Each structure stands twice: as structure tokens, then as C-alpha cells.
Hints:
The chain is of the alpha+beta class. It has helices at about 10-15, 25-30, 90-100, 120-125, 160-175, 185-190, 195-200, 240-255, 275-280; strands at about 20, 50-55, 60-70, 75-85, 110-115, 130-135, 140, 155, 205-210, 210-220, 225-230, 260-265, 290-295. The chain has a seven-stranded mixed beta sheet with strand order 1-2-3-4-5-13-6. Strands 7-12-11-10-9-8 form a six-stranded mixed beta sheet, sandwiched between helices.
Amino acid sequence: MMTTPDQGTPDGGLIRQVVFRPLTGDDLDAAPPWFAQIELRADRWRDADTRAAVAVLDGEVVAAGVLFTSRAHVDRYWVDIVVDPARRRRGLGRAMLAHLTALRGRGIPLMTRGYVDEERIAFAFAVGARTIQIVPPSTVSTAGRDALRPHPAVVPAAALPFAQVLSAHADMYEWIHRSWSPVSPGFAEVVNAGLDDELDRQASAVAVVDGRPVALAAVYRDVDPPIVCAETTRPDVADGERLVEGCLRHALDTMADRGAARVEFDGHVSDPHLMPNWAKLAPSGRWFLLVEVPAEC
């Protein structure tokens, strides 16, 4: 995501004085408070597709940014930028974006994300971004769970061998991203990493038909409130919307029985079996956008 953007008219004289260099561990140790507005790491923290830079003016760091690829996807670089609050609206954000773009090791597009009312999204659109995905308001009250019906094919994830649950989780992830952000080889290891600790196997639910997991509601317990992701394990599952409904009802029932008043849903408007059920639960919160940023701005 691009945080604290700079939408002002570029100050050509100022920008010509700016020096860009790799972000170092020393920069992180001496970080000004505004660095905390995004997650920064030293340049090349993982590989050549993970870059970080600072902009220096008169010996002072005035902006910072990171460019990185997801280990689970192959199609775009994430970009994230922060500018010293005292230096904003003078073109530093755009200059940092241009610098990071030039650091790309591969000619793939950039992307960022944020809530619709955040300045970072306004900045992205100001430099020509286009929306590639939308996440609806995500806060769901467990008190509204009666809007969904149970399903007899649904069992707790704990009732299945964990390897089956992991396979279903990876299958679900792959196809819901297929049309707009394809996964990379070996993605399953990345998206399933840590689930032995993070996945609540009693609250998570799997719909099993003819001995096969065909839908999943995954409840992640490593955050508060818990996050719920749900869909079928492939796009053409018969009666998929109804099966996802049953999985979600199990998850919400379990969380409510534990005293949880709310959960956070994570998904996309393009998830065909999840979205109708999500809408039935009258979620609250803010709309969230994922946008592609042009490499030339």
C-alpha cells in the first residue's frame, strides 16, 4: 500500500536535489517516527525482487519506500511509500514511485491497496491506477448468524486429516485468485505456512461430498477478532453457495458459543459462493480496494 502520499505539484528544483539510495539497517535504527506508517525493511531483504530506498535532501531522509513481490503470486510488485509529513505535496511521493519502478527486476506491473477514503488510494488514482479487486465491508456480528442455514455435509475441520484441510485451503486460494492475480509455483507452501498454529480447526468448517472436501470456511485465530475466509475448493462445485453457507454457519455458531461478538471476513466481490452469504450477514465497515499502478507515472 502507498501510505501518506504526495499529490502536490512536483517541485522540479527540489526533486533535482534529492538523492535516492538503498535503505539500510542503519536507516531503520535511526528511523524518524513517520517511518512507522508503513512496514520498512533493508534493501534486498529477501532477494532481488525485494527493494527498499530512501530519498535524501540536504542530508536528511525525506521519504522511503519498498517494492516487493509476494511469494504466493507471480504477476505484480507491491509498492509502499511514505513521505515526511513536513515535506508532502511537493512531488516526493511521485519521485519515489518513479525510482522504485526503475528498480524492478522484472517488467511486471505495480499494485497497492487501501480503504477507499484513504489518501494512499487517492494518490494511486492520481498517478493513473485502476481497480483490480474490491473487498467489501468486513465486520460481521455473530448475532446475525441465523441469516445463514446449517448444512448436513458440513463438519469441523478437526474431523478431517489435517493434510486434507491444507489441500482444500490451497485449492480454494488458487482458484479465487486465478482470474486477477495468478499464483506462483509452490504457492501452497506459502499460503499454508503456519496453519498448524493459526487455523482454528474446531471453528473452521469443511463441506464433504462423496468423501471429498468441496467447501471450506477457514477461521484464523492468530488475530483478534478472528478472520474468516470461505469459498468452494474449485469454481464448479455443485450447490456451492449453499455449501459455503453451511460452512459459515458452523464457524459463526462456534465463535458465538465461545462468546465472540464479531469476526472479520476476508474475501473479494468476485468470490461467487461467498459474496451472497456475506451480504446476508449485513457487514459493517469500510470498502477496501486493490489497485494496479502504472509503471510510468
